[in-house]
Amino acid sequence: VNLDHFEVLRAIGKGAFGKVCIVQKKDTKKMYAMKYMNKIKCIGQGAVTNVLREQEMLKALEYPLIVNLWFAFQDVEDIFVVLDLLLGGDLRYHIQQNVRFTEDIVKVYLVELASALDYLRCKYIIHRDLKPDNILLDEKGHAHLTDFNVAVYVQPGKKITSVTGTKPYMAPEIFTNNYLHNDPPSYSFAVDWWSLGVLLYEILTRRRPYDIESRTPNSKICQMFQQSKKPPYRNHWSREFLEVITDLLEINEDDRLQSVQRLKTYDFVAGINWSDIAEKKLQPSFIPSQRSLNCDPAHELEEMIVEPNPLHKKKKRLDKKNKVADTDVI
């Protein structure tokens, strides 16, 4: 499989190392999302290892509530990954559109993302970057986990010691050991459940539970968590939801809600048929717009106007390069 097998339709997203387009496979007419990453930029940013590791990881995964890999290939300029196409937009987009999320909406995201994390745990994978930007909705409103760029395998019974992720969503244990005791961090699957708590809090309030930004000094973050200060909870939240969000945002990782098995014991999710979740039989009460692509239209304008080497002109550009190379051969 190569780029010639796909028709490039339009740009819908942009990441740290590349862009995302809607494509259609010419023989089957099936639509996909294609992420392409410039090799020179990847090398320059030291991202090659992460990109290749993500591809190998995705090849071993298949689950209805993650964004699955279909094809991976490369040419002289770019690395390509072809993924499930989900047209409901990411949760960051919907937060920015001022969607009024309710506890009923959040409940579906909670159990679907918990199911995805449970699947990853069975594969010994910690995602490490769960945030609204990395949760894609399908056209019916179901939540899917994407972007495994910093995900990592963990050996049974072992812990991870490297520091990575998006700082406002990173769990306390990633900071405290490293910066208070000069020891390497030591953490496991519980960090993803902390991030899930931050995400749910942000969806409902449009702010995060702790005043942490990417530029916030680690020493200040440690002080916040040392004080064990609870984030402000809204008075109108139900007791049932408060129990869940409080236990997800438990600073002590040993006491934190961090498994589907424990989640099932909470009144907030009473009545959920857990066998329905992976089959996407739950009925989300928020349905993304069917009349738009639920993404920033600036991505397509940038691809057409600003991008010096747009993907839809790649074949013509490479053909021209090859012809020039041919004329140089003696």
Q: Which bin fits the share of residues in helices? A: 25-40%
Measured by DSSP, the beta-strand proportion falls in 5-15%
Number of strands: 9
User: Which runs of at least 5 residues are low in confidence (pLDDT < 50)?
Assistant: 324-330
User: What does the overall shape look like?
Assistant: globular
Task: State the end-to-end distance.
Answer: 32 Å
Which structural category do the helix and sheet elements fall into? alpha+beta
- The Rg value, from CA coordinates, equals 21 Å
CATH superfamily of the largest domain: Transferase(Phosphotransferase) domain 1
Q: Which CATH architecture of the largest domain would you pick?
A: Orthogonal Bundle
Mean pLDDT: 90
Protein name: Protein kinase domain-containing protein
Organism: Trichoplax adhaerens
GO molecular function: ATP binding; protein serine/threonine kinase activity
Keywords: ATP-binding, Kinase, Nucleotide-binding, Serine/threonine-protein kinase, Transferase
